[in-house]
């Protein structure tokens, strides 16, 4: 019988560390934190890479982001000024710089996501060069994968897969324009019947629901949700105790969870709500985990496709997409039941931070 008492990891012997540029004295003995680098990059692109030792690259990313931000702010000011002139009945000689505004927004997004992924990659390389153990923690990994798809894989040293996921996620952003332009017909119809909408609150509510359904089930939204869910699922599957996975390797090395049972149950519940099937993958049950994830992704995808083709109405599409709640509840309940049943068995992973 195994005791459920958390087993703290044994202290690691001191390892030599490379001194980053500009760091001397006692600071050189402090390992670079992958998680801190990610947070710094999320707050300001380039700061995470600077912290992790890639200072030239960090300065370049930060400078480019500031330049794009200034450019985008100028284009936004020009657009707002032109719209105000049109509202006041004045004529505008030049076309609105919508393309430039969209380009600035997209480039800023690319730099922001690259800043987070690049910071994680630089921190991982710095720790490897210094001989520090990898930082592996499911909560941090899931959070990084949710905010920046692919960052979780990069934190595990799987750079190609991480950057592929990030590239797919970012490449979907340009499709937002064409997808949102499809709402113009709905909005024009609403503008033509504004008086009727004011006298019929039920019609106004129906219109709001239609717009919401078309946005939620549009291709960019569904596709990005798919990439984000797959990123989280792959991270959890990598840490699962299946043969050949990183989790199995860590289990052989004697690593264990250090969190209490209630904290693990809460974490699994949140994980199941964010990405149904991910808790099962983290527990090593890949068949059930991928099945629940497939159901959760297939229903909105099918509903969005049928809605775009005009086969079903927005209300019907929303109803089909809402069936994913069953996959969410099933994932949470199943993972919690298994966790409670196996509470006296050791868990395979610990926080190495």
TrEMBL record:
Span of the secretion signal? none
Which residue spans traverse the membrane? 59-84, 104-124, 162-187, 232-251, 257-275, 287-308, 320-337
- Region annotation (Disordered) maps to 1-25
Keyword field: Membrane, Transmembrane, Transmembrane helix
**Regions of compositional bias (Pro residues) in chain numbering:** 1-14
UniProt keyword Nucleotide-binding, yes or no:
no
Q: Which residues form a coiled coil?
A: none
Identify this protein by name: Uncharacterized protein
Organism annotation: Oceanidesulfovibrio marinus
């Amino acid at each position: 019988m195994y005791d459920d008492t958390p087993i703290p990891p044994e202290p690691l012997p001191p390892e030599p560390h490379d001194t980053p540029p500009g760091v001397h004295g006692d600071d050189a003995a402090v390992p670079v934190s992958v998680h801190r680098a990610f947070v710094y990059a999320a707050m300001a692109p380039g700061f995470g890479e600077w912290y992790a030792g890639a200072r030239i690259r960090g300065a370049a990313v930060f400078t480019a982001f500031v330049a794009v931000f200034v450019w985008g702010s100028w284009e936004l000011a020009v657009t707002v000024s032109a719209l105000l002139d049109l509202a006041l009945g004045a004529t505008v000689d030049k076309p609105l710089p919508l393309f430039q505004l969209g380009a600035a927004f997209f480039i800023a997004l690319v730099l922001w996501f690259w800043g987070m992924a690049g910071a994680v990659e630089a921190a991982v390389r710095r720790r490897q060069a210094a001989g520090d153990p990898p930082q592996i923690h499911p909560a941090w990994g899931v959070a990084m994968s949710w905010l920046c798809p692919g960052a979780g894989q990069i934190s595990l040293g799987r750079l190609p897969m991480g950057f592929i996921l990030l590239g797919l996620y970012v490449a979907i952003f340009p499709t937002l324009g064409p997808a949102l332009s499809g709402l113009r017909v709905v909005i024009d119809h609403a503008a033509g019947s504004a008086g009727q909408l004011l006298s019929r609150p039920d019609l106004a509510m129906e219109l709001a629901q239609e717009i919401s359904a078309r946005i939620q089930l549009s291709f960019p939204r569904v596709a990005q949700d798919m990439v984000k869910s797959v990123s989280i699922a792959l991270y959890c599957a990598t840490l699962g105790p299946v043969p050949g996975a990183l989790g199995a390797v860590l289990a052989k090395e004697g690593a264990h969870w250090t969190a209490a049972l209630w904290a693990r149950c809460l974490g699994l519940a949140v994980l199941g709500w964010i990405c149904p099937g991910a808790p099962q993958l983290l527990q090593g049950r890949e068949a059930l985990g991928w099945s629940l994830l497939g159901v959760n992704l297939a229903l909105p995808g099918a509903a969005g496709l049928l809605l775009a083709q005009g086969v079903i109405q927005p209300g019907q599409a929303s109803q089909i997409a809402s069936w994913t709640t069953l996959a969410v509840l099933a994932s949470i309940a199943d993972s919690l039941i298994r966790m409670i049943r196996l509470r006296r068995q050791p868990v395979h992973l610990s926080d190495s931070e």
